[in-house]
Write a structure and sequence with these properties.
12 helices, alpha+beta, 4-stranded parallel β-sheet, 9-stranded antiparallel β-sheet, globular
């Protein structure tokens, strides 16, 4: 008999991996995101699962959950028993959080497994993936593969030998831990880079490309092999921080991407990444993960696909959006997925009321046809809120 699954939203996992500590205090903003969006797993969890949350859904959200036929429930903690844990990501910190919730340590990855997951989650794995990719498809037009930089001298040499570069901390997320250098390695840049080297041991150096679009190839590992789960088409701001996703079926996303990149290239890339991650990731990790990619313009102004900018060895917002689109949206509808911050809960409530008035929710046959749908509840202390807007048309 299959074990009941338990989900934990833990966006602090990336910073916890950076620390490497079991008993770790995340930054206040990360803790607040974790609390405000704790119910997000409702939208991707398997049927009859438990979502760990200190707060249950609001009455309004519960009514929508029931209309869509969702059978997961929430709980602040668990009684003794056998469970299958599905946290947002794995780290020593996440294991400690699950133990606090009632999970016995024997049901969690051991220290050796967590150490290997942490290593694979570091940005050096991006270089490994790209090197294997080049071996599998030797005629693929790849730009320079990122370099691993272990000291201040090599970091400065790399940054000043190219017109524009990105220096990336091994463990960071959502655009943080990234330094853009436009050929000038000044005192401020050196100070930031040396701080990363001191704390994390190395820096990844990348040549900055002329990006035109962000996307991701999403996968699932069963511990033996990986399978392609779908595409993610998302937006970032000028700092590289995630701002939201397109909600659309994979067929629509692929048609959209095919305006820039041939379907043959997309399929070959997907197959190569699946082969590489089956060898590299599957023996050490079970769960969803994503590989961020970009479409960029090369020196000849041709559009190219760079197959791996970053490995996210965890659940991610793109996968949440993919699950919502495939499980809950009506055929012919598409939309946008948002995670919004506001310094005042009143601003969220004001936007929430306006959205409800402008985009009334229409659900037919347990599928969202159109409208505004909050994914997480609003409370009198909410600073972060997740929601979607769906329309009866193809955005792409």
């Amino acid at each position: 008999m299959a074990l009941q699954k338990v989900y934990l939203f833990a966006p602090e996992n990336d910073t916890a991996l950076a620390s490497g500590k079991r008993y770790y205090t995340p930054p206040p903003a990360a803790r607040k995101i974790a609390a405000d969006l704790a119910l997000l797993p409702i939208w991707y969890a398997d049927e009859e699962s438990i979502i760990l949350s200190q707060r249950p859904p609001s009455d309004e959200l519960q009514q929508t959950i029931e209309r869509l036929g969702i059978t997961s429930r929430t709980a602040p903690a668990l009684p003794p028993g056998e469970w299958e844990c599905c946290p947002w990501g794995w780290s020593a910190y996440t294991c400690q959080q699950l133990e606090k919730a009632g999970i016995e340590s024997r049901q969690l990855p051991d220290d050796k497994q967590i150490t290997e997951i942490r290593r694979l989650s570091g940005r050096a794995t991006t270089r490994d993936i790209l090197q294997r990719f080049a071996e599998l498809i030797p005629d693929y037009p790849l730009p320079p593969i990122p370099e691993i930089l272990y000291d201040a001298a090599s970091t400065e040499r790399f940054a000043t030998s190219h017109r524009a570069t990105l220096l990336k901390a091994p463990w960071s997320s959502s655009g943080r831990g990234i330094i853009r250098v436009n050929g000038l390695y000044d005192t401020s840049t050196a100070r930031q880079a040396e701080g990363i080297l001191r704390k994390q041991g190395y820096i990844m150096g990348e040549v900055l490309l002329d990006k035109t679009a962000d996307l991701a190839f999403e996968f699932y590992s069963n511990g033996i092999q990986t399978r392609f789960a779908g595409y993610s088409l998302f937006n970032t701001d000028r700092h590289g921080s995630y701002t939201g996703n397109i909600l659309a079926p994979d067929t629509a996303i692929e048609r959209y991407l095919s305006r820039s990149i041939s379907p043959a290239t997309l399929h070959a890339t997907q197959a190569a990444l699946q082969h590489i991650t089956t060898e590299l990731i599957a023996p050490h990790y079970k769960g969803y993960f994503g590989i961020d990619a970009i479409i960029y313009r090369d020196d000849d102004t041709a559009l190219r696909l760079y197959p791996c900018i970053e490995l996210n060895l965890r659940m991610n917002m793109g996968l949440v959006a993919h699950c919502i689109a495939s499980r809950f949206m009506a055929e012919g509808s598409s939309g946008s997925y948002h995670v919004a911050y506001a310094p005042s809960p009143a601003q969220h409530i004001e936007r929430h009321r306006a959205m409800y008035a402008q985009h009334p929710l229409v659900i037919e046959g347990r599928r969202i046809v159109s409208g505004y749908l909050p994914l997480t509840p609003l409370h009198d202390d909410t600073l972060y809120h997740a929601y979607i807007i769906v329309e009866r048309k193809n955005f792409l």
